[in-house]
Amino acid sequence: MRLTYEAWGRRAEDGSNAVLVLHALTGDSHVAGPAGPGHPTPGWWDALVGPGRALDTDRWFVVAPNVLGGCQGSTGPSSPGPDGTPWGSLFPYLSVRDQVTAEAALADVLGIDRWAAVIGGSMGGMRALEWAVSRPERTGSLLVLAAPAAASADQIAWGSVRSARSAPTRGGGTATTTGRRRARARTGASGRRAASPTSRTGARPSWTPASAARHSPGRSPRTAAATGWSPISTTTRTSWCAGSTPGAT
Fold first, then answer.
1. Do 84 and 164 reside in the same domain of the chain?
2. Same domain, yes or no: 30 and 78
3. In terms of domains, do 140 and 177 share one?
4. Most buried among 7, 21, 41, 101, using CB within 10 Å?
């Protein structure tokens, strides 16, 4: 497994000044900085990260990984599968919890036992919530922006449409820019739909007390069940495949 990240600032000797920034579905690890190879635009939070800014890099060590499955340097559908060709639509199914497990492994490699703060918006906010629920001892504080703790049936349905339109083919090709733009527009429409599909289809949390006890031995079923959302394939099967970025592990 390969997880790419970018970092700004200097890590304190004990790692106590580390801040984790988690990108949204269409983002990547390039939170701040100019455009460059693999990054056709400047950082998506460039105004917030840097000396004297909200995330002051003279004080904080800011780390932003590309999510597992994201294809911006991290292992994803564009990565070679067992037969040497890109995984494409056969890339293994991942949940938000799986992605956070990968991020925790990155923290271990960086020598960070506890983040001073975990920050994320949209899908990144879902991962931030998962950090707080599954690893509270490693999460100092939490900033979640525009993110749910659960996915409704309506959101899952629209996410599936997006995933189908954006996923790379088994032969290694990727969706066209036009296709991705169209998929993005369709997904945007999902935010304006009524909640009625949830009541009709009865989408249930992926973690119930019973399943939590089976999959998380030694943890409180109530705590394990608190995440409450169903894993969504679009979080890992949608691909924006570009070159690697610095700092892969």
1. no
2. yes
3. no
4. 21
Helix (H, G, I), strand (E, B) or coil at 19: strand
Kind of pairing, strands 61-65 and 5-8? Answer: antiparallel
Give the Å distances, CA to CA, from 204 to 37, 51, 197, 210, 225: 42, 44, 12, 13, 11
- Residue 246 to residues 71, 74, 146, 194, Cα–Cα distance (Å): 14, 11, 28, 42
Q: What are the pLDDT tens digits along the chain (249 aa)?
A: 999 999 999 999 999 999 999 999 889 999 999 998 888 899 999 999 999 999 999 999 999 999 999 989 999 999 999 999 999 889 998 999 999 999 999 999 999 999 999 999 999 999 999 999 999 999 999 999 999 888 777 777 766 666 555 554 444 444 445 556 666 656 555 555 555 555 555 445 554 555 544 444 444 433 333 333 333 333 333 333 333 333 333
Continuous H helices in 69-147: 96-110, 123-134
Residue tagged 């705590």 (tokens): 223
Q: Are residues 10 and 132 in the same domain?
A: yes
SS3 241: coil
Give the torsion sign (CA, 153, 158, 159, 161): positive
As a whole number of Å, the end-to-end CA separation of the chain is: 8
Domain shared by 100 and 26, yes or no: yes
